[in-house]
Amino acid sequence: MSSQSTLDAFLKTKPIGASSYHLTLPHGDSWLEVHPRLPPELLMDPATFERIWALHPKDLATGTVGPEQKAVTFQRWTEMYGHEHYDFSGQRHEGQPLDDPFLQTILAWIQKHSGQPYQGLLINWYKDGSHYIGKHRDKETQLVKGSAIYSLSYGQDRDFVIEADEQPCTYRKVIHMNDGSGIIMGGQTQTFYKHSVPPRAKSKCMGRRINITARLFKGA
Ligand SMILES: O=C(O)CCC(=O)C(=O)O
């Protein structure tokens, strides 16, 4: 069977893995879909992990945060692929060509799973627990309103924290992301919630992690 027909068969008979679950969030029309085990064609073997790891840019991501637009160096590497550019944290991330066959497989799977013409992948590289992404909502100005954001995890286990963006906060959940897992954020999640991958002690969180996200850009 070709890998395409395997993919077709998987999507027809089992669109969501047996251990996957849907989480309706309490604020707005917001939800998460959690996939602790991605289908085999979306898993990275060690050689693929090394190849995708080697793509990370030389310099850490930079940008601005907060109402005062404070300049910061983020503790992770970030690169955009397959879409012209993605603007967030006061920075333009120019899109690189999406040439890698594994990245192309991911994109094709997401297009099929969503039935939508996703084009862009944003990759985050975390060298160990000292690399992280702080609480934020994804900027949706360039995205199709309410479109789902796919986020796939490879390598080191980390925690994904989702919390309501309100004072006091009445909802907070920690989801464990293991190697070969995925989370889809949908509906109004970016309106009512912030998410983060908090830093962890290097002594307990030594491994490298690759996070691959897909967003549906307007006009795709
Ligand atoms: O690394 C992750 O799991 C989260 C990435 C993320 O939040 C983002 O790219 O906006």
Structural features, described:
With 220 residues, the protein is α+β, with helices and mostly antiparallel strands. It has one domain (3-215): Jelly Rolls. It has 4 helices and 15 strands. It has helices at residues 3-13, 46-53, 101-114, 189-192, and strands at 21-25, 30-35, 62-65, 70-73, 77-81, 85-88, 91-96, 120-126, 133-136, 149-155, 158-164, 172-177, 181-187, 193-197, 209-215. The strands form 3 sheets. It has a 9-stranded mixed sheet with strand order 1-2-13-10-15-8-5-7-6. It has a 4-stranded antiparallel sheet with strand order 9-14-11-12. Strands 3-4 form a two-stranded antiparallel ribbon. The chain is globular, with a radius of gyration of 17 Å. The protein starts with a helix and ends in a 5-residue tail after the last strand. Residues 1-15 have low confidence and may be disordered. The structure holds 2-oxoglutaric acid. 2-oxoglutaric acid (AKG) binds at residues 122, 124, 133, 138, 151, 160, 195, 197, 211, 213.
What's this entry about, in short?
The protein is 17% helix and 38% strand. It is of the alpha+beta class. The chain starts with a helix and ends in a 5-residue tail after the last strand.
